[in-house]
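Below is how a single chain appears once it has passed through the pipeline. First comes the sequence as given, then the structure the pipeline wrote out for it. We keep one example in the README because the format questions we get most often are answered faster by looking than by reading.
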Amino acid sequence: MALMYLTRSTDSGRTWSKPQVPQQAMLGHSPALFKTKSGMIVCAFRYIDDLDIGLAGVGFSTADPDGTHWSGAPQVIDLTPARLGWQSSGRMNSGYPTMDWIDDTCFMIVYHTRPGPDTPREIEGAIYVEESG
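Resulting structure:
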């Protein structure tokens, strides 16, 4: 298990609250945070909820603007090796996401993945459109 914890600072990072597990636990590591124009917080991370059966990938969860209420189960963007039918040797094959705006309405989550056991790592991404409300 690799639970991610939430901590807060209300004084520009001088002090931090005690780390807590969010109400919806997220299993993963290498998180990246991003705030959309509407204020929604996106946390993309190396998804390892299925690591016990040899699957890892990239997923994300969202929170309201103050970060108090996180979405339920993460949305999984990439899950290797299951999507390509090969068995991992215990190595995690996707991760290290980052996010940035493409234009005024679209942002992209970019991450590395390894599509097969004898192939080099690749860079992939998923584009999301923020709907105006």
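The CA atoms of residues 50 and 56 lie 6 Å apart.

See the next section for the split statistics.
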